Amino acid sequence: MSATTTSTRTTGLRPIAEYDRPLWQRLLLTRETAIIALFVIVVVAAAVIVPNFGSKITMTYLLLDMFPVLIIALPMTAIIVTGEIDLSVASVVGLSSVLTGVLTQAGVPFGLTIVLAIIAGVLCGAVNGFLVTVVGLPSLAVTIGTLALYRGLAVGLLGTTAVTDFPAFWTDLAKEKIGSTGIPVVVILFIVLLAAFAILLHFTRFGRGVFAIGLSPEAARFSGVDVGRTKLILFVLSGAVAALGGIYYTLRYGSARGDNATGMEMQVIAAVLLGGVSIFGGRGALHGVVAGVLLIGVLGSALRLANVTSDVINIITGVLLIAAVVSSSVLAAIRSRRKSTRKPRLVGTGPGNA
Amino acid sequence: MSTTTAPAPAQTPERRSGFGTAFGRLARAREASIVLAVLIVVLAATLTNPNFLFSADGYRDLWLTPSLLALVAIGQAVVLITRNVDLSVGSILGLSAYLTGRLFIDLPGLPMIAVILIAVVFGGLLGLINGALVAFAKVPALVITLGTMYAYRGINVWWTGSDRINASDMPKPFLALGTAQILTIPVLTIIAVVVLIAVAWWMRNTRAGRECYAIGSDPAAAELYGLPVTRRILTAFVLSGALSGFAGVLYAARYGTINSQAGSGWELDAVGAAVIGGVAIFGGVGTVWGAAIGAVLLMTINRVLPVIGVPDFWQRAVVGVLIIGAIVLDRVLSLRQHRKLIEGREAKQ
């Protein structure tokens, strides 16, 4: 009888009854709106309280630093919406960074280097996707394995050495600003990717399939969604975008090292979950995720400027992540309790009516 | 999400008695193949360089190196069997290790055993926080322990700062624990084996242990059946935290220096050890024996690579291949068993 209440628990699916509420409530009372509001509050508060936070240079550095996390969070959102996860992204960043270095050192033209590094990322993603969809293994286990494997290849290729000599044109481009605005050029690339993923996820048949898989893989399969192909494509996209992040990382810091971006997967996943994507799959939106990434970035940057050390930022990130998921689950519990006490009145079932 | 419901190897349909089948079952068990892998690795290293096994240091390290990871992997295995995961173990280890050092410095009068107990209980409390958040808020352990991994490590760095604890700050008898041996076997290894036997017995023979498997196999059914799911999950996380805390104490004893990064990255090694040892990441399957032997394999390979001429930079890649190989093997075996069961059913009809 109460199929809707149980499904809120497991899939994050909102019960039909919720659509009775007026449009403004539905738009304003979402996780995404909450996180965007929190983001705006933090930005305003930081601009007022923290000296130098409002300056152009802070914003520039914030965007430059957040760029890899921002772009990798896009495919990660889609993957988590299908109920899977990709823990190997930071290792792909490291591997493509090392490849960029090794190929540049070998004298390969930089344009070709970029193409080859992205192909490597695509292959990494394809291996993940193959193991998850064709062999049928859980993505958590697969990507813990490939996290070690890809990182191992990266570290193995370069050892403790680093490649630091890159064409000046490209390293400048990675830090270049648009005119005198202080906005990095790479933001354009991010906006293009964001638009592409937003259209893919929220406005296409493929995207509806992604959400359908997250809600119920069986139902999605019966309604004609090719579950395996969809997941495979998402893992490949994730690998490709992570490789792009790796090339950027190399150019931005002018250094290709095997341990580049170690631990970044945790940052990405924390930001995506903070942005309102349900870890159970089936629920999430990109505007929330972008706000989630920026929130973590702004918070870190503001605290650092206020001379709070990075360890406190780690504590805050962790607590924020836990608070975000626990609060939504507590809210869902309260809502379902309220609904279940109200239900008999609404449906009109008398006592003893099974 | 896909769920693997492979029955444990111990539940094979044929149940003939006798030494032959008992031996066959033992040989077929997942743990046996990992033991074999460890033996092959050790043999290869010893053939290349006899010192690997036949020098006093080499022999001791063979036992000593995996002991700490084995403790963490045992706890991780119990958590995994209940269909959860604990990513915060490395951070708990680091915090407990630093706490151990601080207790020796700040409260010099405290007996050694009290220090050890305090650190273990402290680890258990950190595990309790994980468990409570997972069990009561009904949020996936992956997210919660990802959060506490950050938070605990942050607290560790905050507390430690750039400080580090050196061997000279800790009492000699405590440090001796890290190197002492009984009958050529290091004390730390003996401790790890005793813990292993206790937890393995608990998982295999007690009601609570069996219920962990039931919960991991099908949480909804366990709930409907009336098993104390919340309490068991709490227990699993407390155990994992306490064992990580204990590993932290032994870390302090063995290495003598503790900085704020002690134990970072151990969470993946612990999960890796358990998965290689045949513990299914989606619950219900596996043994703590397997996890402990998985830890031995991981750490031994780490030491063997330089000996056989591979730079140890490749260690993580080997670990990755092992993890992937192990889960693919599990998948293949479970598919085969599934097919056999169906054939068996059809043959009966």
From TrEMBL, chain A:
The chain crosses the membrane at residues 34-53, 59-80, 87-108, 114-137, 149-170, 182-203, 232-251, 263-281, 288-306, 312-334. Keywords: Cell inner membrane, Cell membrane, Membrane, Transmembrane, Transmembrane helix, Transport. It comes from the Bacteria. It is found in: Cell membrane. Coiled coil: none annotated. The keyword Iron does not apply. Its main location: membrane. It is a multi-pass membrane protein. This is Autoinducer 2 import system permease protein LsrD. It comes from Leucobacter allii. The lineage of its organism: Bacteria, Bacillati, Actinomycetota, Actinomycetes, Micrococcales.
Automatic annotation (TrEMBL), chain B:
It is found in: Cell membrane. Its main location: membrane. Keywords: Cell inner membrane, Cell membrane, Membrane, Transmembrane, Transmembrane helix, Transport. The chain crosses the membrane at residues 34-56, 62-82, 103-126, 132-152, 173-203, 274-301, 313-333. It is a multi-pass membrane protein. Part of the ABC transporter complex LsrABCD involved in autoinducer 2 (AI-2) import. Probably responsible for the translocation of the substrate across the membrane. The complex is composed of two ATP-binding proteins (LsrA), two transmembrane proteins (LsrC and LsrD) and a solute-binding protein (LsrB). This is Autoinducer 2 import system permease protein LsrC. It comes from Leucobacter allii. The lineage of its organism: Bacteria, Bacillati, Actinomycetota, Actinomycetes, Micrococcales.
